[in-house]
Every structure is written in structure tokens, then in C-alpha cells.
Amino acid sequence: RLVADLLTLSRLENDTEPPRQENVDVPALLESLLAEATALSGGKHVIERGEVSAGKVRGSGDELRSAFGNLVSNAVRYTPSGGHIALSWRNEDGCPTFAVADTGIGIPEVHIPRLTERFYRVDKGRSTAAGGTGLGLAIVKHVLARHGGSLLIHSELGRGSVFSARLPK
Q: What is the distance between the alpha carbons of residues 103 and 106, in angstroms, rounded to a whole number?
């Protein structure tokens, strides 16, 4: 998985071509990601569909699936058993936004600006136990940048996090 993530990140960082432009049915993608999150969770979490009020967007379906999937798998990895995870796709200030909210462990505010750096870990022991490569949020950042979007992160220690992938109007 580490090699695959490194190759993906390298391709995203070095690709000077704009992403493929296709109609991406994000509500259908959200349903697929819900099913994958439920399987990854193994019944340890309550995973639900939040608001779904935005429609299709133009962009690379493969890249957006990768970015959104990384956000979802992180929520499952870092939310303790019994926690809640909600996926939503809505317009925020006119911008289509895919969001993953969880009742996980939360992230100290001091670490939030560095979360999208390659291999950055808030807590090395916890991250190793969760099984990530340390590249997921870097991939998310680059996919969103290629699509003219951004990643917004809100988190409170002990209360959970909301990761929002905001695309342009």
C-alpha cells in the first residue's frame, strides 16, 4: 500500500495536465463509500449518510474517489469502537463540499496545519496501530488542488473531527 500511495502522490505532484473532465456523480460515489466504510468498520461504528443536497461535478472520478476514500478510511481508523461517522455532500456557500464528520479522538489544533504533509504523524504510536501510510491527506490535498478545491479541517480533542473537501463553484 505504501508503494501504491507513493506512486499516486508522485503522479499527482508531477502531472502538469489538468485532471480529466467527466461528470462525477458524487451522490452515487458517496453511497459506494458508505458501503466501503461499513465493510472497513466491521460493525464497530455507526456509519450514516448525512445531508446529500449537491449533484454532479466535473473532474476526474478516479482522483475524487481516491481523495474522498482517504477521508472516509481515516475516519474509520481514528474513531474508537462505538463512534459515529457521517458522510455528506452539500453546497456550502455555493461550493460543492464532501464532508466526513466523526466522533473520533480529535486532533490538537497545533497539528492541523501540518496534517497534509507527507508522513506527518500527530502521534506515531497511534498512527502505526491504525495502519495508515502517512500519505493519505497529502494525496487528498493534491487531488483537491488539481480540481481548484481545498481541504478544511475542524477538530476538537476528545470530540471528533470534520474533514471537508470543498470544490469550486
A: 8
* SS3 assignment, position 74: helix
Its pTM surpasses 0.90: no
| pLDDT single digits (tens) 78-134 | 999 999 999 999 999 999 999 999 998 899 998 998 888 877 777 655 544 555 667
Indicate if the alpha-carbon torsion angle 62, 68, 72, 77 is positive or negative: positive
Query: From the CB of residue 134, how many other CB atoms can be counted at a distance below 10 Å?
Result: 16
The C-alpha atoms of residue 99 and residue 161 are separated, in whole angstroms, by: 10
Q: Strand (E) positions, 34-126?
A: 46-52, 57-59, 84-92, 95-102
Q: Over the Cα atoms of the chain, what is R_g?
A: 15
Tell me the per-residue pLDDT of 50-81, one tens digit each, with 9 for 90 and over. Answer: 999 988 999 999 999 999 999 999 999 999 99
Q: Which position has the grid cell 476514500? A: 69
Query: CA separation (Å) from 29 to 69, 72, 158?
Result: 10, 12, 29
Neighbours of 17 (CB within 10 A): 6
